[in-house]
Every structure is written in C-alpha cells, then in structure tokens.
Specification:
This protein is α+β, with helices and mostly antiparallel strands and 327 residues long. The protein is built from 11 helices and 11 strands. The strands form 2 sheets. Strands 8-7-6-5-4-2-11-10-9 form a 9-stranded antiparallel sheet. The chain has a two-stranded antiparallel ribbon with strand order 1-3. Helix 9 packs antiparallel against helix 10. The longest helix has 16 residues. 43% of the residues are buried.
Length: 327
C-alpha cells in the first residue's frame, strides 16, 4: 500500500518566496543532479529543520526526506522526451506522473507536488542555491502595511542572487524613464512585462516589484506583480495584493479573476466563488470566468454543475486546458 504522502509533520504553509511549472531563464532537458525541495504549487514547503532531496541520474532517481528523528526514502525511474518527463515512484503516493518540466542552472520544476498527492508541480533548487536564497529572505512580520509588503516582496526577489541582471535593469530603468508617462516606475514595469513574456520570471518579479514599490497604488503594477507571485512566489502575498486591488479598483474584472485563481490554489472555494461572481458581473461575456467557476464547482464535488459551467465557457469561446466544455 502506498503511503498517502510524505509525513504531514514535514508540511508548513509557505510564508515567504518561491502557478505554472516555470523556472528562471532558458530551460535544459536534463534533470541530472541533486535538488532540494523549495515549494509545492499549493504553497507548502518543508517545515523548519526538514529537508527533501531528489537525485536524478541515468534513468533512475532517489528521494530522501529527513527531519529530526525521522527519515523517509524512495526510489524510482524516469525518462525524458523533449521537455516532457515521466517519473515513477516505487512507494510514494505520487506513483507515476508525466508532464512538462523545466530547469535552469539552479532551479528544477517537476510536474507533481511532493508534499501531497494532489495534482500540481513542485519547485526544487540546488542545495547551495536554496541555502543562499533562504539566508537572504527577510522575515514576514506579524502585521505589515501594503507598502511594507511590497518592499519585502522586492527583497525576496533580490534573494535569488541575480545581481548582474538586476543592475542592468536598474540602468535601463533610469536611462529610459523619460520615455514613459509613468516615469521610472513604468520603465521598470515595461522591463518586467518583457521578461515575463520571455520566461525570465525572476527578473519579471523584480521589475514588477520595483514598479509597485515606486507607485504602490497603481492597479496594473500591483496586478502583474501578484500574478507573477502566483507563478513562482507566495500565494498568500499574491492574495493580499489582489484583495487590496479589488477593494480599491472594484470596476476592473481581471484582478477579480486572478484572485479567484489564487484562492483556488489555496483551496478556498468560497473566496474563489465570490471573486468570480464579481468578475462575471463586470465581464459577462468572458468565458474564462465560467471556466474558472467550473473549477470551483469541481473542487467542491459538483461534477454536473461544473460541466455546465465548462459548456458556458466553451460557448463563449473559451475551451479550457482540456476543452472540457466540448464534451
């Protein structure tokens, strides 16, 4: 019998840093090496004192999860075809999983969650890179204002250590500030947008964070920062930013949609439903919101209502990831 997942004592909610499988920079189709778990898609990380490592090589892998007085191990096989990887655990509840993966020099993203057997992805870093990152992450205070949160999020982005890239961004922002109506803040935002589209998510995170710090009431800057955090950052921080945006700009539907997606990732269907109802009221012809509502209904166990929502989305031109509405 497979265990349900790693022991639950290894779990804790992600409070700082690092929801699609992405990594920073160009991707390599070779997972060979030893990687340490940074986070799962749902925001969980190993608790303090716990370490989860996976080592790939020659079509086989080993997993070792340790904390004081407890060690869990497993082995398995893997195969790579292009940017798709298939992993097969021998004992863990993850079993056999296939999907897209990506890696950079210090980061690997795999198509399964490690701290639960729910669908999703997990982000891993080399042991040295993760140790360096965590040593630079500022603590999250018990309470903080929005400007303080934005400043902390910028510091977390700096902890990735991409100093050369960030220095180049700063030079460009100052040089190009006069070309934008929004000045230096918009120059930072423009760079963040370019980096995001090219898949350089760490630099995008930093660009959007700098723009938001400079103009902390700009809905566009805050929304894009939050959606980037949903990709590789903290779902909790993203949610708080989006809650602020939707409260202060209630006439904009995209932030409500993004808030709903984040709440779904956190398994808060009540929050997701409320946000989607606002988004649907503002943009009733946008099938994306019907599709997301289907996700909410499916997560709540309503299979038939979910299919009806998917059909509405399909009728409006949004087919979803698996063309659910066409069924």
């Amino acid at each position: 019998m497979r265990p349900s997942a790693l022991p639950r004592v290894l779990l804790s909610l992600l409070l700082v840093a690092a929801s699609l499988p992405v990594s920073a920079g160009p991707s390599s189709a070779d997972p060979t090496g030893t990687w340490r778990l940074m986070k799962d898609q749902d925001g969980k990380v190993p608790k303090a004192g716990a370490v989860v490592e996976i080592t790939f090589g020659n079509g086989k892998f080993t997993l070792k999860a340790t904390q004081p007085d407890e060690t869990v191990t497993d082995t398995g096989t893997y195969s790579v075809k292009g940017r798709q990887i298939t992993v097969a655990f021998q004992d863990m509840a993850q079993g056999r999983r296939s999907g897209a993966f990506s890696r950079s020099a210090d980061t690997l993203v795999l198509p399964f969650q490690m701290l639960s057997d729910e669908p999703g992805w997990s982000m891993w870093m080399t042991p040295a890179a993760l140790q360096s990152f965590l040593s630079k992450v500022p603590p999250k205070p018990a309470s903080e204002t929005m400007p303080q949160l934005l400043a902390r999020v910028q510091k977390v982005a700096e902890a990735f250590g991409n100093d050369r890239e960030r220095q180049a961004m700063a030079q460009r922002a100052k040089a190009n500030a006069g070309r934008y109506a929004g000045g230096e803040a918009e120059a930072w935002y423009a760079q963040g947008a370019i980096f995001f589209m090219k898949g350089y998510y760490r630099e995008a995170w930093y660009g959007f964070a700098r723009a938001a710090v400079l103009q902390p009431t700009n809905a566009v800057y805050l929304h894009n920062l939050a959606t980037t955090l949903q990709e590789i950052g903290s779902q909790g921080d993203a949610r708080r930013i989006l809650e602020w945006v939707t409260a202060n700009y209630p006439n904009l539907d995209p932030p409500f949609g993004s808030l709903a997606i984040g709440c779904l990732a956190l398994k808060d269907t009540a929050c997701a439903r409320a946000a989607l109802q606002k988004a649907q009221a503002l943009a009733p012809q946008n099938g994306l919101y019907d599709y997301a509502m289907g996700r909410v209904l499916e997560q709540e166990g309503g299979k038939e209502p979910a299919l009806a929502a998917y059909r509405k989305a399909y009728a409006k031109g949004y087919s979803g990831s698996g063309k659910e509405g066409a069924r």
